[in-house]
Design brief:
The chain is an alpha/beta fold. It has two domains: 172 residues, Rossmann fold (3-Layer(aba) Sandwich); 93 residues, Pantoate--beta-alanine Ligase, Chain: A,domain 2. 40% of the residues lie in helices and 20% in strands. The protein is built from eleven helices and nine strands. The strands form two sheets. A six-stranded parallel beta sheet has the order 1-4-3-2-5-6, sandwiched between helices. β5, α8 and β6 form a beta-alpha-beta unit. The longest helix has 16 residues. The radius of gyration is 19 Å and the shape is globular.
Length: 283
């Protein structure tokens, strides 16, 4: 595996691969890699000839500076994992390399970016669009891989891709969970032992919600039961739990309003650690 720190170096590596007729897969990450990231890498390896993984903590998507400062950074361990996983290039740039000058672009991402995370984290998705559009430009991937834990982010990236005319395929990949059901996240390492023991209750509540939906319980009641259940644990506080159309991400009041299916998206605080998860609903 080659570790590349410059945009020019990445462009050259990709150019050489494409000259050999290879398809290029990109897995954008912010590092602090875990098995969830590696599952994306493994899929990219299966479907592409040449795999690039970016390891870059993007400052423009953090609306909370403390979250940026405390975000885990484990570049050396990340590169070891990527090498073992058979990655061709680890792209590990500096902030100055990605943003030689401030990125002032404002993306009109539409309604998918205005709800849930968009409402709670102003500017977050514009920052995501900035960095992912740059990575698409640098790596020119045929396919780019994203985890469905960040379900809304995938919809935002699709909107951004339409704006910039990206021709590659955006590939969503299933959530990878710990054995106790907790969605894998780089932020999990910041949980205390007590918080970590409580955190699987989030997924348990979502599974119960899916059962309630199948049983025909109205969505407003499902929402209230999930929020009350999680908030009953004094270690946890629900920021939002929204049941939305799987495609438009707009709130739905009943399953008949969601022709593309519905998804329950949740954000929960455990102390100063913010965890997100989701579950697909069907009748």
């Amino acid at each position: 595996m080659e570790i590349i720190t410059t945009v020019s170096g990445l462009r050259e590596a990709v150019r050489a691969a494409k000259e050999q007729g290879k398809t290029v897969g990109l897995v954008p990450t912010m590092g602090a890699l875990h098995a969830g990231h590696i599952s994306l890498v493994e899929r990219a390896r299966r479907e592409c000839d040449f795999v690039v993984v970016s390891v870059f903590v993007n400052p423009t998507q953090f609306n909370n500076q403390n979250d940026l400062v405390t975000y885990p950074r484990t570049v050396e361990a990340d590169c070891e994992l990527l090498s073992e996983a058979g990655v061709d290039v680890a792209f590990v740039p500096s902030v100055e390399e990605v943003y030689p000058e401030p990125d002032t672009r404002v993306f009109e991402l539409g309604s998918v970016a205005e709800v849930m995370e968009g409402a709670m984290r102003p500017g977050h998705f514009n920052g995501v669009a900035q960095v992912v559009s740059k990575l698409f430009d640098f790596a020119q991937p045929d396919r780019a891989y994203f985890g469905e834990k960040d379900y809304q982010q995938i919809a935002v990236i699709r909107a951004m891709a339409d704006i910039i005319g990206f021709k590659g395929e955006i590939v969503p990949c299933e959530i990878v969970r710990e054995v106790d059901g907790l969605a894998m996240s780089s932020r999990n390492v910041r949980l205390s032992a007590e918080q970590r023991n409580a955190a699987p209750e989030i997924h348990q509540a979502l599974l119960a919600a899916a059962d309630m939906v199948k049983a025909g319980l109205d969505l407003e009641s499902v929402h209230d039961i999930v929020v009350d259940e999680i908030n009953s644990n004094p270690l946890m506080e629900v920021e939002y739990f929204d049941i939305v159309d799987a495609k438009t991400l707009q709130p739905v009041k009943n399953m008949a309003d969601a022709p593309d299916g519905a998804i329950g998206c949740i954000t929960v605080w455990l102390g100063d650690v913010r965890l997100i998860d989701n579950i697909k609903f069907s009748l």
